[in-house]
Amino acid sequence: MLNYTNFSNIFTINRHTLFNTMKQSDIFQIKLQNSDKSFESSNSDSILEAGLRYGLSMRYECSNGTCGVCRARLVKGDIEKIKHHDYSLKAEEIDNQEFLMCCHAPRSNLELDLNLIGDVRSIPLQQIQTKIKKIEFVNDNMAIVRLRTPRSKTLQFMAGQDVELSFKNSAARYPIASCPCHGMELEFHIRNINKDKFSQLIFTQATKVKDSINLTGPKGVFVLKELSVRPMVFIAWDGGFAPIRSLVEHAFSLEMPNSIYFYWAYPENESTPYFDNHAQSWHAVMDDYHYQSIACEFDRNSHNDCHKVAKKIYDSLDHNVVNQSEVYISAPAEVLIYLGEFLLENGLNDTQLIASPI
Ligand code: FES
Predict the structure, then answer these.
(1) Distances (CA, A) of 235 to 48, 263, 317
(2) Ligand 1 mean position to 70 CA, how many Å?
(3) Ligand 1 centroid vs 124 CA: distance in angstroms?
(4) In terms of domains, do 131 and 104 share one?
(5) Do both 147 and 243 map to the same domain?
(6) What is the pLDDT of residues 71-95, one digit of tens each?
(7) Burial environment of residue 187 by CB neighbours within 10 A (0 to 12, 13 to 18, 19 or more)
(8) CATH number of the CATH domain containing 149
(9) Could you give the number of structural domains in the chain?
């Protein structure tokens, strides 16, 4: 079994640490035209890598100069080609100062004109053959599965979305627990559920490292309201932590200043939520982060318990904060329905509620 007491190496998005290790003169500021967004890049990283690490929803596909999807227009500054590319820019693209972000690094501060992914509808459905990189069993009931996409076909998605995974004749839909800034590595939290055949393949160890898993996605609209200035309240039931982790780490990488409150409900027969230390570790990333775990009596076979869980969560919330926040809930549909009703009947506006059934 995996001991998650010392897992902090998993969480690697602290960009300040990253850049503090570089010489000041290696770092350039990259500003997006007609936007308040900007990010930093060293002269050894491609502009695409640096932008993704900063949580920007950049358009790209191959990361290796083949597809042409990552084209941007250079408005100001100097760039240098750091990688050969097979994609040939057309004459009018060259005249328009366009270049491939995956093959160029900055040589000065830059201003760029580029189209970010605006919303989930503009992301194409993708089919990718991934490989299992690692399976770790937190306990008899929860597995952390890490998949790796090919370098030439990284999944484009927004934090909080989910995908369908299939192996042989078993398929299931799971939220992605990693954030787009993690690139080729995708993480999934899979519960041991008898009627979920895909999970049974994992828990009977019928699948193993290096097996190919077909991925189709992304799907779903459980994404961050990046322009909102309200505090953000995240509520997860058990494995509903997966998309919440993706959203929170995406918010960190975007350096969103909004206060973050995270309530994590879990079955009381487990001593803590399965990734409790990870949720605790976010205190080190952000001062204005508040975390509370909520132990709930719960029998997976009783619908009645969903009402009890929803009530226990509701009674644990700070309602002064909740009613002025964007509220993101990831929980089983029955819990969502009851909890949503409690919240809406007690002052939350439905435009503030973003929910995803697990
Ligand atoms: S991502 Fe395909 S050319 Fe840059």
Answers:
(1) 32, 5, 9
(2) 5
(3) 15
(4) no
(5) no
(6) 999 999 999 999 999 999 999 999 9
(7) buried
(8) 2.40.30.10
(9) 3
Q: Measured from the CB, is residue 356 less than 6 Å from ligand 1?
A: no
Look up the CATH number of the domain holding residue 287.
3.40.50.80
Cα 66 to ligand 1 centre (Å): 6
For 177, left (φ over 0), alpha (ψ -120 to 50), or beta? alpha
Question: Considering the domain boundaries, does residue 347 fall inside one?
Answer: yes
* Residue pair 38/30 in contact by the 8 Å Cβ criterion: yes
Could you give the CA distance from residue 43 to residue 157 in angstroms, rounded to a whole number?
Answer: 26
Ligand 1 and 316: CB distance under 6 A: no
Q: What is the mean pLDDT of each run of 10 residues along the chain (358 residues)?
A: 36 42 69 88 91 85 89 96 94 96 96 86 91 94 95 89 94 94 90 92 94 96 92 96 96 92 94 95 96 89 79 96 97 93 94 93
Asked if 236 and 194 sit in the same domain, the reply is no
Is 172 in the same domain as 103? no
- CB of 282 within 6 A of ligand 1: the answer is no
Q: Is the CB of 61 under 6 A from ligand 1?
A: yes
What pLDDT, in 10s, does the model give residues 100-123?
Answer: 999 999 999 999 999 888 778 888
Ligand 1 pocket, 291 CB below 6 A?
A: no
Supply the pTM of this predicted model: 0.82
Locate tokens 């409900």: which residue?
A: 265
Q: How far is the CA of 64 from the centre of ligand 1 (A)?
A: 5
**Where among 96, 113, 130 does a domain terminate?**
113
Tell me whether residue 227 is in a domain: no
CATH of the domain at 95: 3.10.20.30
Is residue 89 in contact with ligand 1, taking CB distance under 6 Å?
no
* Cβ pair 264, 279 in contact under 8 A: yes
Q: How many CB atoms lie within 10 A of CB 139?
A: 12
Last residue of a domain, one of 166, 191, 219: 219
The whole-number pLDDT of residue 303 equals 59
Query: Does residue 105 share a domain with residue 59?
Result: yes
